[in-house]
Amino acid sequence: MSKSHQIGLIIRSCRESRGISQDYMADMLDIAQSAYAYLESGKTSLSVDRLMRITEILELDIHQVIDESMLVHQHAHQTAMHQGDKILYHDTKEVYDQLITELRSEIEFLRSLIKKE
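Above: the chain sequence. Below: its structure as tokens.
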């Protein structure tokens, strides 16, 4: 089972538990309902930006979604990196690194806008 599929299942479960339709989610994301269904089914990979927006709409903690998907997947991924007393799974670190890179890029862009004013 792919990571996208695992995250999609978690998102679907949370969406359904809140009584929110796929149509509503698709409208909020400005995509077709079928495209949203593909995200939940894992047929389409989620971008970090889209995952962040979905977790905002569903009022979820993105870290918990990622961590829960890693728990589901931990038996398949035995490679772990130890950091102090914690275990940081390689896949989680990659996602966090990608988030950090994208956020740094956004900060640089916003700083450039401020300098122009």
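Strands lie at 80-83, 86-89.
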